[in-house]
Amino acid sequence: MQKNDQLKLKLIIFTIGLLIMSLGIALMIVSDFGVSPWDVLHVGLYYQFGLTIGTWSILVGVTILGSSALLMKKWPQFGAYLNMLLIGFFIDMFLLLPFLTEPETLLGKIGMFLVGMILYSYGMGIYISAKLGAGPRDSFMLAMQEKTGWKVSTVRRIMEIVVLFIGWLLGGPVFIGTLIFSVTLGTFIGFALPQCQRLTDKIINKSINNKVGKELERGAS
């Protein structure tokens, strides 16, 4: 399997992961049960200044990528830019769906939120498994970790707290789900990422073997 073919396959997997992850974000937003700290910021900016939630996700991503580039004195991998653009676009796309509405009951809100969180975790696992680069927020986290020498967990925790506080000041939706997300996301990702990585490796290896097999058949004929 040529490198171009492998890159195309990875791009497909990467995009599918972002699509699933964005659907998870949209479900959590619509559930009105709480969202991730970053989405508290995006929704808060939307409340205060208009535009769309997806647009703010992109604009915040641009700011963060620029900050990462300044700190590291190098540009992030192209996957970071693709991540930033596609997630913003996909979030707005899903939020425009007429049948995606806020549940009327608390049980419905909880259910939609949990489904959203599961999709978010597996979507993240799928896009990371393609190994085309970290997203803007992860790039900034790694840049800060390298500059400060602090643990990744410490840097990430500080980032989440600062972003959550700013989003809350802007009127973003901080609720029980926000706490649940912050406390349990690591566990969700811990389950999802290894499964997604095994599946991606299996798909890529199968494609490589099929390609080699076809080339051998052509050579034999």
Strand fraction band?
under 5%
- The number of distinct helices, counting runs of at least 4 residues, comes to 8
Number of domains: 1
What is the total tally of β strands? 0
Characterize the overall form: globular
Mean pLDDT: 86
Largest sheet: none
Distance between the termini: 19 Å
Helix percentage range: over 70%
> SSE order, as H and E?
HHHHHHHH
Global Rg: 19 Å
Show unreliable segments: none
How does the helix and strand content classify structurally? mainly alpha
InterPro entries: YczE/YyaS-like
Organism: Lederbergia citri
Keywords: Membrane, Transmembrane, Transmembrane helix
Transmembrane segments: 12-33, 45-66, 78-100, 106-128
Your description of this structure?
This protein has helices spanning 3-31, 37-49, 53-72, 78-95, 106-129, 136-148, 152-169, 176-220. It is mostly helical and 221 residues long. It has eight helices and no strands. It has one domain. The radius of gyration is 19 Å and the shape is globular. The chain crosses the membrane at residues 12-33, 45-66, 78-100, 106-128.
